[in-house]
Amino acid sequence: MVSVPSDQRQAAALAPESVKILVAGGFGVGKTTMVASVSEIPPLSTEELLTEASDGIDDLAGIEGKTTTTVALDFGRITISPKLVMYLFGTPGQDRFWFMWDELARGAIGAIVLIDTRRLDASFAAIDFFERREIPFVVGINHFDGAEHRYEPEEIRTALAISPGIPIVPCDARKRDASKLILIRLIEHAMSRLPAQASA
Amino acid sequence: MTGDETQWFDEAAGPLVRPYAMTGGRTRPGAAWLDVATQVVTVPSASERLGLGPEHQAILDLCHRALSVAELASYVNVPLVVIKVLISDLMDRGDVVVRPPAQALQAPGRDLLQAVLDGVRAL
User: Fold this and answer.
1) What is the ipTM metric for this complex?
2) Within a domain: residue A188?
3) What's the number of domains chain A is made of?
4) Splitting chain A (200 residues) into consecutive groups of 10 residues, what average pLDDT does each group show?
5) Using CB atoms within 10 A as the burial measure, which of A33, A124, A178, B37 is most buried?
């Protein structure tokens, strides 16, 4: 027990770097499906206790408040190397849990906003959230079997007033390769938005 | 003001009681900055477990390999706000060490993004 500091160093050396990517969009657009398609583990679920009264302003210290509700958070994991692990968080679908999104979004690489062309409005709030905070995001058009018409990305861009620089990628959230591709597009997009490297 | 203000055991009390019991009534973690992706690792010498609850012990058992705050909340089956308090208890005791996400407050830099990109392409 005398060598605690070295033990702590030894333990700290085992901790990888971690990065986050968010998967957002309205309720039922396929967020957890997408997380599941690329995660190395079946998606895990955890929950947060929130006060109804906090209404997006209070932080979580407010759980002593009189009315409590529970928000489920689904997430997956991709171990990139022993030194680097990535988490994919499916954001809670309801608009009133903005403040939880803020914590999730802090330090994140960016977000994939999934949309269902049958219910475009369900994902508008998510687009607005990331745009206002200048968090890099890409839009994934999740093609559902029931959708009558396949919209072109530019039709979607116009309908949702998505800025010209934001990639819009048709995808099938059930397919690993499609989900992988949209992750790649997001990371590339995030890199393109970094300040140019200082030249010598 | 209605009578609800003072009525503790309303229908919402159920899910509140157990988390409070586990955290000794504390709601604000000693380490409020613990992120969902913060990595937690058990310190090898953390063997003296007197005074630790079963949830604390579960964390120590799980973290022989690094796990995130979110994973721990899921595996120990408690809300995030509770797992953060439990982890901060263990930090205070020197039983675990934590590593926050690469860039806790701002977006990751170019080198890290490149490493992630290479990793995802290789999946």
Assistant:
1) 0.84
2) yes
3) 1
4) 69 92 89 95 87 48 54 93 95 74 89 91 89 94 73 90 94 93 97 73
5) B37
